[in-house]
Amino acid sequence: VGAATLVPAGVFADRVGRRQMLLAGIAVFVGGSLLGALAPNPGVIMVARTVQALGASAYTPAAAAVLIASFPPSKMATAIGLWAVTGGVSSALGPSVGGLIVGWGGWRWAFWLNIPIAVAALGLGLIYLPQSSTDRTKAVPDPFGAVLTMAGISMITLGVVQDKHSPDWGWAGSKTLAAFAIGVVLLAWFIQRCRTHASPLMDLRLFRLINVRLGVIGTFTVALVWFCIYWGIVRYAMTVWGWSPMKAGVATAPVSLFAGTIGMIVGRWANRMGHRPFIVPGSLATIGTAVWFWVGIGSQPGLWSVIVPGSVLLGLATGLVFPSYIATTLVDVPGDRHAEGSALNFMVQRTGTTIGVALAITFLAKGSGTRGLHQTLAVAIAGSVICLLVGLAVDTRPRQARAASSS
Predict the structure, then answer these.
(1) Cβ partners under 8 Å of residue 161, min gap 6
(2) Are 42 and 108 in contact (CB under 8 A)?
(3) Of 33, 95, 363, 398, which is the most exposed, with the fewest CB atoms less than 10 Å away?
(4) Which of the 8 DSSP states describes residue 154?
(5) Residue 400: what pLDDT?
């Protein structure tokens, strides 16, 4: 739901005002959190998560656009870097905090925690957020395109969560292959509508910018890789080693700590150097992280010998790669389309997250011993190689440096 509604939410933010869209999104998110905290069964939780996704889609691109517009043009790279670091670090921090909260107070506190924070943000936003200009000429994006996106991603995810141990499906089974085929056809139909519709859900002209293309591929892949590794080791520690969610959250806390520290440094230096010098070593560090866990994790728990050092390495890699690819997507997008550009970025990020989590949980649920974990890490290594190759083509240096290099 989040992946499919981010882009139209970005366009709506430009039409009705970014401040209004941001505040409305926070209010919807609070409603979804309250519903989730009070949910009596899993069905209501899914409804609550859907409401949360709609709220997050409303405020995410609007917030990015408000942040970037608050900086002068000469500091645009700094603004994009700050936004990218926030996005990357929050992705790394969320699971660890979630493990702590769930271990301390139960799963309902994963919802309760959002409410006071969101209410505080809502109150401060009403006081301090500036009004933004609106563009009433922008037509409402193609609603059927959003339906095609959700259906296509859902069918592919349905196929991903099957394997040879599934009693009725199996990865080579006719039902699974049909799900993949339907998903691909629906997404191809979505792209065709974007080519021909008067007000497409996704403006394909953005992909004429090479850094947008590279950033989208990199963001999707790094999200898939990161959640394969993270969910892989967390699920293994909880199911095989018997760790609680709290212990797993504390053990992997170095991921967010080092991701935040490194991300701040990257955001500052990337203004002058571009992001390639950080993507390449970060991709290599991600490969090293997957290899470390592959070799180190066994049947016996290894907190200090395996998980903590591996979490530090994953945090370093995250701080280098995640914010860099997020910034790459937006660096050449015109200022009046930053809400739409950031929505596109988060759409592919959440799609990668969906598939990465599905792969990790499927491998670990069906595999025995370390076999499922090794399958998950193998996917992460392959994805990291793609991140490395894409990163070699990224050039986000200031325009003057790019022009001099071309000359």
Answers:
(1) 358, 361, 362
(2) no
(3) 398
(4) H
(5) 54
